Each structure stands twice: as C-alpha cells, then as structure tokens.
From TrEMBL:
PANTHER family: 4,5-DOPA DIOXYGENASE EXTRADIOL-LIKE PROTEIN (PTHR30096). This is Class III extradiol ring-cleavage dioxygenase. It holds the Pfam family LigB. It comes from the Bacteria. It comes from Paenibacillus dokdonensis. The keyword Oxidoreductase applies.
Length: 259
C-alpha cells in the first residue's frame, strides 16, 4: 500500500485541548487514512543544521511552550519509536549521501505530538521524528524529503508539521481572516496544485506578502512543506484537505501529496 505524504499545520499548542473544525478534521483524517505501520514526522520545532533522527524506544512528551493552562503540561503522548524505521531512514540518507545524527532521549516536541494526539489518540503507532534545517535552500529540503519517498510504499506515513502563515507578531483577535494571509495561502495553493516547484522554491521573492506570512524569524514553520512534498516526488499530486485561520492570520491547513 502506498500512503500519501502530508503537510499538517500545528497552529497553537492549544489545539491539543480545543474542539473545533480543524481538530475534528484531524481526528477524522486519522480514521479515514489507512492505518500506517509507522510515522515519520519532520517538525518545525526541531530546527538543526545537522539532520537529526530520533532513536528512542518510547518517546517522552516535550512541553516546549510557556504561559499555557496547566492542563497543557499534564498531557502525554507516549508513542513508541521504531528501531527498524530509524535504521531504514539512516540507510536512505546514506544512499543520498546525507550525513545525519541519531538523537536519543529528546522526546516528541509539540509540533509532532499535538497533531498526532488528534490523529492517532491511542499513541500506539511507532513514530520517528526528524529535524528540519531552515537554513537550507527549499530545493535541498525537497531533496531530503525525496530520499524517503519509498517509505510511502511500505505503509509509512511521512508528515511535515509546520505552518504556511505563521507570524506570531501579527496575530490578532479578529474573527475574519486577514486578506493578506489568504492571498499568500492561495498563491501557494496555485503552485502546489500545478506542482510548480521552481515557483515555490522562490516563494520568498514571488509570493504576495511572503515577508508577513513567513518572517525571517519564523522560516522553520514553512520549511516542512518542502520535506513533505519531496516525499511524494514520484507521484506529483497535491490536494488541499483543509483551510481555516485562527487569530486573524494563523493558517490551519492540511495538504496531501501523492496518491
């Protein structure tokens, strides 16, 4: 069975406690997709110049945020790791001549566990978390994702977790989405649906309101898109499954790539 790869916005950590259209979408998505043997997730909250791969047998839960309700810090997502998937990822990176660093004891950051808690609440599917490198070019990020494309044929779900419009300095209490955020998302959607990778690789120069949507201090939230796309390089299809906004412009979107 060949699974798609996904880009999933993780929004605010409060999604873990919320019940809204997006959280219900994620819950339904986990039920509707074929159950994966394992999950490999590239998280915006693990931004490292060295490609890193988790090697834990069982994951701790990182509460890598502050100022939230106490209930947030009581949440746990004790998903198992997967030695076999970690080994296979290492072999694929070796074949792609990409050096990588096995990391023990880090735990799952909220970019990973908040969305997985909604999609797979039983925490019984093995998870391997991978870092992103926001300093690499989009083409390099895409190429790293493409190294893992064969995992999809082995019932492994590859996810990039981040946010296409994620500028915490511009959020507001507006009930309506900001026009500039919508315009940026729609430009990205047009390129994705036509798989125009060269346009997307130059999004920072060509997309409207790119500086607002992807500020220089928040590029790591956009980069998981390219890792997820790359994982479907052999089946270049893109479908937007969900789009909404919180706080005026915090984009909650999910894209499916491949079959």
């Amino acid at each position: 069975m060949t699974l798609p790869s996904l880009f999933v916005a993780h929004g605010s950590p409060m999604l873990a406690l919320e019940d809204n259209g997006y959280t219900r979408f994620l819950e339904n998505l986990g039920r509707e997709l074929p159950t994966p043997e394992a999950i490999a997730v590239f998280s915006a909250h693990w931004d490292s110049p060295d490609q890193s791969v988790s090697v834990d047998e069982s994951h701790g839960t990182m509460h890598d945020f502050y100022g939230f309700p106490e209930a947030m810090y009581e949440l746990r997502y004790p998903a198992p790791g997967s030695a076999s998937l970690t080994q296979q990822i290492g072999q694929l990176f070796d074949a792609g001549n990409l050096s990588y660093q096995p990391v023990l004891g880090r735990g799952l950051d909220h970019g990973a566990w908040v969305i997985l808690q909604k999609m797979y609440p039983d925490a019984n599917i093995p998870v391997v978390e991978l870092s992103v490198d926001s300093r690499r070019s989009p083409a390099e990020q895409y190429a790293i994702g493409a190294m893992l494309k064969e995992l999809r044929q082995q019932n492994v779900l590859v996810i990039g977790s981040g946010g296409l419009v994620h500028n915490l300095r511009m959020i507001s209490q507006s009930g309506e989405p900001d026009a500039w955020a919508v315009e940026f998302d729609e430009w990205i959607a047009k390129q994705l649906e036509s798989w125009k990778v060269n346009e997307l690789f130059d999004y920072d120069k060509k997309a409207p309101y790119a500086r607002q949507a992807v500020p220089s201090y928040g590029v790591e939230h956009f980069t998981p898109l390219f890792y997820a796309m790359g994982a479907a390089d052999d089946d270049r299809k893109a479908k937007r499954l969900f789009q909404a906004y919180q706080y005026g412009n915090l984009s909650l979107n999910c894209w499916m790539f491949g079959s």
